[in-house]
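ESCALATION

Customer reports they have been waiting on this structure for their group meeting. Please prioritize. Original submission:
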Amino acid sequence: MLKHLGLNPGTTFHQWLKDILAENHSDSWQALKQQMNTQIPGLRFDPVSLPNNIEVPDPAPFDPQNWQVELKVVTAELSSTTKIVLPERDGKLFYTDLDQANPADFARASMSVPVFFYPFKVPVPKTQSVTDAWQALGYKKKSMPDTAVFVDGGLISNFPINLFHTTHSVPKMPTFGAKLGIEEYVAGKIDGIKPYLGSLIGAMRHDADEEFIRKNPDYKKLVKSIDTGEHHWLDFTLSNEAKLDLFKRGLAASLEFLNNFDWPEYKKTRLTLAGLK
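Update from on-call: job pushed to the front of the queue and completed.
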């Protein structure tokens, strides 16, 4: 534990995901991007309407400019105490050729729950492109980390829906969010070290994301909280029965959400917020 800073090396998960990506010819970021940006046959795009014409009777087919799928994996890098978004925003800090990086690395970096898993470590190359990226953040070459140390991004941003936010326009498509657990706004009683530490970590995990939703209350219409019952997010030995129960809960919550979501009405809300109506 003290030597490796965690109980489980995380290699089983890492290899499992590598194998799945390889089987699907997506074991590099470049290959995965190509897969993600393959258009779905028959899918059509309803362009954002003008303020005086909310409804568009004849939706246009997708074209490559309208179909830009993004992947954003959040992790925390300890040596620089920085929130990292992989691959595109911050990958240049750790990879000379980001397109050849294995996406399994991004997931492994993000799932490293402290104590439970070893941190995920990546040597930081001292190439010119990587050095330039660090210098843009204010680091001199001699102060750059030699090794990046990644832990669970949920420690500092547990629900980063803000990464897909557009401020001064109406989105082409809605950004849906699924939160595990029902929101219950109940003040905790801080009467000992355990509740103190629990509340401290909770504030670290949720504050930034909750602040974003407070400033953008329209996002409440895009997020569905899923009741997970007695299942805990750190239960790594779920039975098949428990997995099926979670699946059913997710399915029921999804159907309820989609049956009540009003996309035309949401676009009107965003038009108003963007000052376009």
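Sent to customer with the following note: Residues 4 and 176 are 37 Å apart (CA to CA).
Escalation resolved.
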